[in-house]
Amino acid sequence: MEKVTSKGSKAFWMGLLAMVLGFVGLFLWAMPENSALRGPDMVDPEIQSLTSFHAPLMKAIVPLIFVLLLIPGFVFGFVSGRYKSSGDLIKSMTKSMECMGYYIVMAFFCALFIDAFSRSNIGLLIAIKGANFLQALGLPCQITIVGIDSYSYLL
Q1: Does residue 111 belong to any structural domain of this protein?
Q2: How much is the pTM?
Q3: Which of 41, 77, 38, 34 is nearest to 58 (CA)?
Q4: What's the domain count of the chain?
Q5: Counts for the chain of helices (H) and strands (E), in that order
Q6: In sequence order, what are the beta bridge partners of 87?
Q7: Which of 32, 33, 100, 116 is the most exposed, having the fewest neighbouring CB atoms within 10 Å of its CB?
Q8: Are strands 48-49 and 39-40 parallel, antiparallel or unpaired?
Q9: Residue 116, domain member (yes or no)
Q10: Residue 40's beta-bridge partner residues?
């Protein structure tokens, strides 16, 4: 691990300041009752809510997280001297994403499997057949629960 230099320490505090300013700015933008980040509440549509599913803040949560974490990293990189130009930032982001290829391929095929599983209703079929089987056994509830728990533990 590298020793923290005064330049690195200054870069850390500048990055932290950038993050705090980003969160304060988001807070000031979101708090007014007529904020553009609010949407109609599910229970009472007359009320504008930040946590409503239709609120622009909730719809933009992923880009907001990206930007609110990118800016402090950008500030840290330039103040510490690791980044001399925006090209260095892009190279750094590209390097960190190189190892994500395997994960993305795996996640893609997992998503295909989950979609096929949900469309086939085979989970529902297995649940019904399993419930009928347990009902046909006629065991007391306590034994059935302990048996299912034990079986789940073995899997």
Answers
A1: no
A2: 0.60
A3: 38
A4: 1
A5: 7, 2
A6: none
A7: 33
A8: antiparallel
A9: no
A10: 48
